[in-house]
Amino acid sequence: MSGSQEEDVQNAAIGIDARSGKALEELEVVLDKLKAEGNTFEILFLDAEDKVLVKRYKESRRSHPLALTGRVDDGIRLERQKTEFLRKRADYIIDTTHLLTRELKKELNNIFVENGKFSNMMISVLSFGFKYGIPEDADLVFDVRFLPNPYYVDELRSLTGQDEGVFNYVMDNEIARQFAAKLDDMIKFLIPNYAKEGKTSLVIAIGCTGGKHRSVTLARVLYDKLIETREYGIRLEHRDIGKDALLKNKAAQRRMEIVFSGMVKEELSRQTSTARHCRIAETAALLSACGRITKDGSLRFQTENNAVVRKYFTLLQKTFNIETEIAIRESSMLKKGNVYHVEITDPLQVQNVLQGTKLSVNEADRGTLFLENGLITQQNCCKRAFVRGAFLASGSISDPEKGYHFEIVCQDEVKAENLRDIIHTFQIDAKIVLRKKSYVVYVKEGAQIVDMLAIMEANVALMNLENIRILKEMRNSVNRKVNCEQQIINKTS
Asked: How many independent structural domains does the chain possess?
């Protein structure tokens, strides 16, 4: 034997899981034998909730070794049966459901390196915002919305309970200090009783309105009180602390998207084709998305975009020689802005428009309109006009500074497939996705979105997008070169 093999081993760790096969079934006998021979050992049992285990397996793209049917939850259930004897004999049970890897490492260090006290209870102190919902896994929920809200102090609004300004504002209140003391006393009373009943994890949720100021502060206070004893595994988590900022960023991004889309639609609305067949195709696309036949037989067009309604109004005049009026109404459902209505009441004029655009009425769907056939989109110029009308009616483009996304929302799958097929004739890889109850035709690649703008003849927007793409590619190229050079320097240094 080598010198290293001859050395006495003072401490050893053995990892066992469901993959141990037959050895797992024999383990209980082996443990009894070791104990009878005077060997000392401790058993650490790592556990987690079933839904978390399933999620971990799916993320790792691995099947459970005991899942004979292929279902992960079947494998987990069988594994629990096979390892139940180990759980009963365990000296330490750690529920890893809410633990990060570094937090688990900390707990293991506390037990086996620092010889710290551990009572098989993992406590999670969690702050949250009621407007985002109560945590589903919470065992205890405390509402601190009765405390003064730092949100209404201008200099504190953008800060969080992790900032000392907010922390001091909340805890300078006598009521907050009394609540914190009573909460600490009650939790310390409850924990040993939960542990006595075999509970291995406890989630204590403290909530305020947005989960940013008061709840974060009180969660910090409770965590600091509990961690003083080190009798339990303690972790602190702030679920919603950054959600307000995230939502604001999303709202800002959406505003930028609306601005860019609006610029494109404004440009397209000022263009009117000289060919009557192209004007008919564009009118058909607009009516297919925004038009319907009312119960009294009128043809109603409705949109929230004034550029779109102007374009439709112009197309009616130039193509069908129809003079009508635009009615403006305030938007319902708490939305800001106006809704524009253009209504044709003359039955003969309604018939002329429907016949000219080759549109039929879907009586089962509130009188919406759809194309009977592809007669009006046989020529490439008419296809361009149809796509232009569809985009004007229900399309949008993301802010190119943030990313590339072009989409047109359709009321049903048939309309979406028809539009996608038309776009495909221009060698553009448009796809369809179901979003809520609508079908969305979309294009993701920057170069193909440029082509879409070219198809619709939005030349100004096309140039703006191309300029942004060139600048972004230049920045990316510089960054790649810098990163490459830095790696070379690191390797040679």
From this structure: 2
**d(C-alpha 46, C-alpha 52), whole Å:** 13
DSSP 416: H
Tell me the HSE value of 476 on the side-chain side, using a 13 A CA sphere.
6
Q: Indicate if 185 and 101 belong to the same structural domain.
A: yes
- Is the model's pLDDT at 330 over the cut of 90? no
In this structure, is residue 444 part of a structural domain? yes
Helix (H, G, I), strand (E, B) or coil at 293: strand
Helix axes 243-269, 459-492, angle to 10 degrees: 140
The better pLDDT of the pair 8, 339 is held by 339
Give the Cα-Cα-Cα angle 232, 238, 243 (nearest 5 degrees).
165
Assign 1 a pLDDT band (cuts: 50, 70, 90): very low
Determine the 3-state secondary structure of 443 from DSSP. strand
By residue count, the chain amounts to: 493
Q: Domain check: are 70 and 175 in the same one?
A: yes
Decide if 203 is inside a domain: yes
Q: What's the distance, Cα to Cα, between the start and end of the chain in Å? A: 42
Using alpha carbons only, give the angle 193, 198, 201 rounded to the nearest 5 degrees. Answer: 85
Q: Is residue 492 part of a domain?
A: no
Same-domain status, 415 and 287: yes
Distance of CA 161 to the CA centre of its chain: 25
256 in the same domain as 240: no
Shared domain for 227 and 291, answered yes or no, is no
Alpha-carbon distance of 470 to 456, in angstroms, equals 21
Residue 182 CB: number of other CB atoms within 10 A? Answer: 10
Backbone angles phi, psi at 329, to 5 degrees: -130, 150
Mean per-residue pLDDT, 122-130: 91
- Read off φ and ψ for residue 405, nearest 5 degrees: -160, 125
Give the strand pairing for 368-371 and 338-344: unpaired
What letter does residue 8 receive in the DSSP assignment?
P
User: Using the 8-state DSSP alphabet, how is residue 363 labeled?
Assistant: G
Task: Print the domain residue range for 384.
Answer: 250-471
Domain harbouring 461, CATH code: 3.10.28.10
The DSSP bridge partners found for residue 342 are 301, 326
Same domain assignment for residues 81 and 227: yes
Look at residue 212 and tell me if it is in a domain: yes
